[in-house]
Write a sequence for this structure.
């Protein structure tokens, strides 16, 4: 049977039509932090976990990511009980957000044995709960190179411990910036982009490293490789959230300064190439304040990129329409976010938001406690729809049925299987 999936937008209201047989089911996990008002601590968990977890499973979610660990327990219960609770609701235990920063004395002395004891107990609990991943959401920010070395050694050891327990470990990096109060900057002040004779912009208390220069790329990569060689992460998110300004290469003449940004991007590609050559099994995700680096060169190294920090559904019609001319749906990070939208202030109904997000990788970034019962029912049906048509949406051929540049009142698009059978 031939199946076609059509999306139509009329004056800001989106409708979806589908014809044909079911596709493969797609697994969707939710972060328990999103329902923290209901089960975010041991007391709330004890009172509400059964009804909350079953409701989420009924909505179509298939797995969880935990966010409450303390002293060998998850949400105040033993790991075994937590696993049983999750599975009783028809869900799977997938991952956990958990971390433990070093105190000032540990940073100064380099002795973090007590912190590793904490991690040993934590890792054991997560293994017993059936976790497949541990995500460390944040680490100490070093003030000196000596502190950075301590933090690196600490993370290396934690990564080894996680891997030894049969779980995966990932980290987030932003390698293109430097703090002036650091040994790296003191050794190579010329490595930063700065215009001679002018006071630099110190956004986020940082300067931007000049990745247009091969020696800078090599130097930073070699420094990072010391960490990655030890902890062997399975996943790295490489982000860039510092705007580039003061563009001036200290080694180029005045006539060549117009080439700096071009060579800078080539340097970023070269950095990623070096990472994947050295760590061929690494999953590398790209981002730059949203979709600032959504290009074919980046996708050679990263299979998915966040399309834009603007999640307003109506704005996303333009954003994703334009992106579709160069990139497949499976590469476009897209979510249903809260309203009023954090950037535009617009309130768009949840059906419209979902249909637009389904023309990307699809997900939710909102607090389910804050939406109405009617919207919760809508989410249930949306997830079922995504399960049903995931294969067709992600891997089908994308057809634009309208031109947003000529018609601002309606938008329509369609997905068809590559072999034209559906």
């Amino acid at each position: 049977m031939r199946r076609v999936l059509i999306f139509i937008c009329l004056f800001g209201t989106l409708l979806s039509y589908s014809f044909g047989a079911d596709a493969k089911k797609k697994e969707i996990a939710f972060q328990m932090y999103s329902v923290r008002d209901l089960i975010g601590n041991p007391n709330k968990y004890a009172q509400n976990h059964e009804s909350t977890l079953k409701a989420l499973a009924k909505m179509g979610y298939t797995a969880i990511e935990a966010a409450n660990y303390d002293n060998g327990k998850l949400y105040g219960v033993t790991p075994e009980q937590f696993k049983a609770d999750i599975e009783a609701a028809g869900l799977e235990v997938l991952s956990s957000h958990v971390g433990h920063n070093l105190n000032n004395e540990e940073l100064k002395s380099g002795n973090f044995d007590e912190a590793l004891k904490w991690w040993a107990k934590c890792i054991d609990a997560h293994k017993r709960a059936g976790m497949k991943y541990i995500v460390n959401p944040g680490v100490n920010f070093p003030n000196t190179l000596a502190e950075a070395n301590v933090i690196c050694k600490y993370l290396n050891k934690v990564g080894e411990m996680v891997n030894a327990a049969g779980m995966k470990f990932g980290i987030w990096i932003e390698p293109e910036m430097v703090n002036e109060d650091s040994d790296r900057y003191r050794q190579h002040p010329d490595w930063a982009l700065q215009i001679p004779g002018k006071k630099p912009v110190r956004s986020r208390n940082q300067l931007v490293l000049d990745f247009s220069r091969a020696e800078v790329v090599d130097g930073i990569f070699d420094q990072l490789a010391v960490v990655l060689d030890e902890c062997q992460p399975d996943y790295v998110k490489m982000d860039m959230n510092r705007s580039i300004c003061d563009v001036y290469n200290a080694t180029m003449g005045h006539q060549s300064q117009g080439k700096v940004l071009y060579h800078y991007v080539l340097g970023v590609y070269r950095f990623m190439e070096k990472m994947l050559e050295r760590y061929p099994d690494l999953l590398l995700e790209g981002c730059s304040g949203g979709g600032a680096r959504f290009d074919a060169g980046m996708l050679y190294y990263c299979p998915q990129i966040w399309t834009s920090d603007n999640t307003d559904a109506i704005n996303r019609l333009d954003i994703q329409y334009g992106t579709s001319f160069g990139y497949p749906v499976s590469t476009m990070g897209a979510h249903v976010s809260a309203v009023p939208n954090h950037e535009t202030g617009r309130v768009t109904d949840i059906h419209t938001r979902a249909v637009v997000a389904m023309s990307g990788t699809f997900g939710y970034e909102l607090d389910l406690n804050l939406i109405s019962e009617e919207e919760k029912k809508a989410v249930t049906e949306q997830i079922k729809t995504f399960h049903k048509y995931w294969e067709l949406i992600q891997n089908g051929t994308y057809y634009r049925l309208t031109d947003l540049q000529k018609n601002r009142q309606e938008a329509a698009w369609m997905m068809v299987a590559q072999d034209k059978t559906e």
Remarks:
- Residues 10-24 have pLDDT under 50 and may be disordered.
- The radius of gyration is 24 Å.
- The CA atoms of residues 66 and 96 lie 4 Å apart.
- Residues 373-395 form the longest helix (23 residues).
